[in-house]
Every structure is written in C-alpha cells, then in structure tokens.
Design a protein that fits this description.
By secondary structure, the protein is an alpha/beta fold. The chain has a 3-stranded parallel β-sheet with strand order 1-2-5. It has a two-stranded antiparallel sheet with strand order 3-4. Strand 3 and strand 4 form a beta hairpin. The radius of gyration is 19 Å and the shape is globular.
Amino acid sequence: MTIGLHGDGIHRDNGLRIDKVYAHTDVAVMHSYPMYTPWARKPLDPDFVPFTCALVAALAGKPVLMEEFGGCTALPGEETYVMKWIETNGRDHEQFMASEEDFAEFLRLTIPKLHDSGATGAMLWCYADYVPELWNRPPCQNSQHERFFGLVRPDGSLKPHAKVIQEFAKSNPQVKPMPEYAKLNVNADEFYADPLPHLVDLYKQYLEGVEAQAAVPSGASKSRNAVDAA
C-alpha cells in the first residue's frame, strides 16, 4: 500500500508530510519534475529526480519508488521552446516544452542516475499523447502541455525517449544499495519548518557527493567497497 505524493510535499507542509504519511504505508514514493521546479539547475536537470528520491528516502526512513516523472515534448521536428497560451478563464499560462531529442537525452542521463541512487524502481508519465480530437476538451483545453507527455505519439509511433527506455531495460537492471552520497541527513521537523533553504542546501550536498563519486576510479571504488565489507 502506498500514497502517491508529489513535489508539493517537499516544498511545504501541506498536511501530507513525507515522514508522517509514509510511516503508515508499505512503500514510499515520489512524483518529480525538474521542469516545474524553479530551483532545479535547468528544466531538464538529470540529477533532480534522483535527488528527490534520496530526499524522500531520508524523510520516510525507507527506500523509494519514483512513481512518476517525465515531461512534455514539442511536436516532432520542433526545437525546445516555451509554449504560451491563455486559459478559458483568461489566465496566462506558459510551459517549457522539450524537443523530443532533448527529452530523450534527459532520460538517457537521468535513468542511470536514478538507478545508481538506490531507487527501487521508476514509472514514467505517461503511455501516449492525447489525440488532437481531444485537445479542446477538458482538461486539455486549459492544460495544453498535458497533451504531450506520452511515450508514443497519437499515431502510435515511438518517441525517441521510448527507445532510451528500451535500451536501459535490455541491461536487466537490479535494485542497487543506496550509495553514501544519497544518504541525506535530514531532521523532518527542522526541514518542514522552512523547506526551501533546506532543499537548496541538501541538493548542493547531493551534487557534491555525485561529483566526488564520479571522480573515484571504478577499480578503486570496488576495492574500497570490498575493504568496507570485510
């Protein structure tokens, strides 16, 4: 049993605190989107999703399934851009839209990092784009970016990022132990008293740990792990 909490739950105490909710579930999960998050390094930040997974693990005290992540893509052949529109209520809206190729590269970088961070699994949102016949119906008429989150286009053809997932799946990935850099030290009460400064500081620490790990030669890392195990 679980409850699908999303990024709002790490940005404020919205009554569904990570530490409180996941004390009563079998599995802890998170929904994570750098393109919706101002303090991410960029809309397609490949370390953001793994970091939020590690943060939720620290707050929940248990491993985390990345239950939802992904992004909206531009039409085939279009470059990355910011789409702007006016909702039926008169409100202006804009959304980062990744080119299909840029989004595929985002996943090519993100999925191995998520795997390395100790995530128990991941689910990408979502299967297919909406067909154009539904674009002017709720919810697509106001949330126009929601038309374009699919692995496949409305005609059933695969987007490039679907092929990235296929290639990763061929490696037969297994759940890994959480590395030291992903074991964040977080006091839940202090965190929820003022989340944003904690998020920024913890992400900086996480990135420093990722960079330090990347700088260790693979052979040296294995030798050190063997010594630690002994």
